[in-house]
Amino acid sequence: MRLLVFGSNGQLGHDLMEQSQARGWGPSGADLPACDITRAESIDHAFAGAGAIDAVINAAAYTAVDAAESNADTAFAVNRDAVILLAQACARRGVPLVHVSTDYVFDGLKTSPYLPDDRVNPQGVYGRSKAEGEAALRRHWERHIIVRTSWLFGVHGPNFVKTMLRLGKERDTLRVVDDQVGCPTYSGDLAAALLAIAAQVADRKEAWGTYHFCNDVPVTWYAFTRRILALARPYERFRASEIVPILTAHYPLPAPRPPFSVLDCSSLEQRFGIVRRDWEAALKEMLSALYAR
Ligand SMILES: NC(=O)c1ccc[n+]([C@@H]2O[C@H](COP(=O)([O-])OP(=O)(O)OC[C@H]3O[C@@H](n4cnc5c(N)ncnc54)[C@H](OP(=O)(O)O)[C@@H]3O)[C@@H](O)[C@H]2O)c1
């Protein structure tokens, strides 16, 4: 299996590279500054360096959700326009493209898990740019898989878990939003799922379309934070003695968040035979890896 990963230095990209190396796939990775996916010649250069390729995974994205509100041009350039360039590059070479997207394409007003075919209605610039990137990919290259995920945390790169670990050491009290519900997702588990999918589509087990992957058991950010600090206590001392649930309205941010973004993953489980686990088991693994570094 020969794989080319765009965004290979990011949180997810790092795990994709590590796991595909462990599988003996000798993956090629491309990321800034050497490879800028907003430039067609940069993408071509990455393909040329990789040689013959069986599948491409795009983990590159502009992921600064709040900054996107004032940097719409960059968000759309990376999350929509560059996806067109990647789709065209893959189409010219006949290579399947596995692309990662987000729960932010939904408005969060549903009360049952979102299905892949549910209507998108993003509320912020980041979500709109990702939703338009998905639509562009569907138009430009039919041999694609879109995998939406949510609340990503991993050992590499900034994320909510690492922020709470830091704040837990800096502050006496943590105030955390308790009226947003979603499913945390370990980037290591998502990477494993994406590699399994890439191997299957490269092997002509075709199931083109849009899917969801997240770890199991919906939770609020508040309840998630309580488990993060509880599970990290064996590793270090925290100053925070109190975690207080608050409302989203009391923690204003530039970009709106979906209040409910639980993703229904059953079609991905069935089509690709992928087994998901609880985020708590994944969080234990992440913390163990983080503190072993
Ligand atoms: N993080 C989450 O909570 C979350 C939730 C749901 C879905 N997702 C999706 O999951 C995927 C992976 O997210 P992540 O957390 O791994 O993101 P990340 O850590 O920000 O990684 C994205 C990578 O893409 C690179 N990149 C940005 N602009 C680029 C360009 N023009 N050309 C080439 N590379 C570029 C970034 O480089 P720089 O760092 O140098 O900019 C970074 O290495 C994304 O599609 C994201 O939308 C993430």
Written description of the protein model:
The chain is of the alpha/beta class. The chain has one domain: Rossmann fold, CATH 3.40.50. 41% of the residues lie in helices and 15% in strands. The chain contains 9 helices and 12 strands. The chain has helices at residues 11-22, 40-50, 72-93, 125-140, 160-170, 187-202, 221-232, 266-272, 279-291, and strands spanning 3-6, 28-30, 55-58, 97-102, 144-149, 152-153, 173-177, 181-182, 185-186, 209-212, 219-220, 242-246. The strands form 4 sheets. A 6-stranded parallel β-sheet has the order 2-1-3-4-5-10, with helices on both faces. A two-stranded parallel ribbon has the order 6-9. β3 (55-58), α3 and β4 form a beta-alpha-beta unit. The longest helix is centred in the N-terminal third of the chain and has 22 residues, at 72-93. It is globular and about 55 Å long. The chain starts with a strand and ends with a helix. 46% of the residues are buried. The structure holds NADP nicotinamide-adenine-dinucleotide phosphate.
